[in-house]
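User: Teach me something about this protein's shape.
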Amino acid sequence: MTKTINNISIPQRANLVGSFLRPKDLNAENADRYVSELVSAQRKAGFQIVTDGEFNRTFWHLDFFWGFGGVAHEAGGDVTFNGETARLDKVYLTGKLTPQPHPFIDAFKRVARYAGNDVVAKLTVPAPAQFFQQLTIPQNFLSTRAFYPDLNDLIADIAAVYRDFIQQFYNAGGRFLQLDDCTWGAVVGEAAAQRYRNLSPNLDDVKDQLLKVNNLSLEGRPADLFVASHICRGNYHSTWFSSGAYDSVADWVFARENVDALFLEYDDERSGGFEPLAKVSADKHVVLGLITTKTPELEDKQTIISRIHEAAKYIPLERLSLSPQCGFASCAVGNKLSVDQQWAKIALVREIADEVWGK
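Assistant: First, the predicted structure itself:
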């Protein structure tokens, strides 16, 4: 549900998911300046929860994985999206997973420094289930099994390194952690059975594994740490990876995932209807991702407001908030819109939230 951090209610009614379009000349030498400017721009736009735009990484997920011991990466891990090939890295095991000081902690300290004490710095990282999926995709399955013949041991070690990371984050002052998770979108739809064939012929078994690794990773987390799960269906250069409604995963992630809030992609028909929201447990807040980051055209305000009230038929309006469906640059390549169009989308989120819930 909601919590208070720095006297700010979390989540807000108007929220941002995480990534922003990268400056063309972004590099390690000027990243501090650009993060500082981005934090200021988020403040100016009226947001009290800010991110570093994911300026510390090339890929929303892979860079984080190779911050753990026992993980290597190299070029050539391309993935086919709808109409485009995502140029990614291969990420695979070279041994058992081990915790170590994670480079994302320094990136968080930077954005926290510029955020100060009157706003909240949020860190976005891939969910444990996303890591489990990465290590068990068909091209990694055999090499992973060389180190983890029993996948329950893999789940336990993923949870262990995540718990260690969460403690590092908390010790650095972090109080809002967002777990970005494409697995719940990938385990639905026509391609799901083929995608997870190595794990089980029964997709309910796979859902049990995804839920187990996420919840085990969050065991023992500090009571004042707010954790959100952002569920996505892929967001690479304005393309998408998977389609499918939430109906068949709601009994797992909506009802039983131990997070405080769900950021849900709902910007087009690929996400299905709002009916599964009735299964969201009473201890969770839902952030509706109704504004797309994939196209530059601004949504009609009244249409979005009507959709919010439609969702409120299944979950009370006071437990709802608004955001874009995803970030604007899940990978450094970014989506197909301009910086000005990005900020126009953000302004629309703020405007609609103020109108629906009040300033």
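Now, about its shape. The chain has a mean pLDDT of 94. The CA atoms of residues 91 and 134 lie 7 Å apart. If you'd like, I can walk through any region in more detail.
User: That's plenty for now, thanks!
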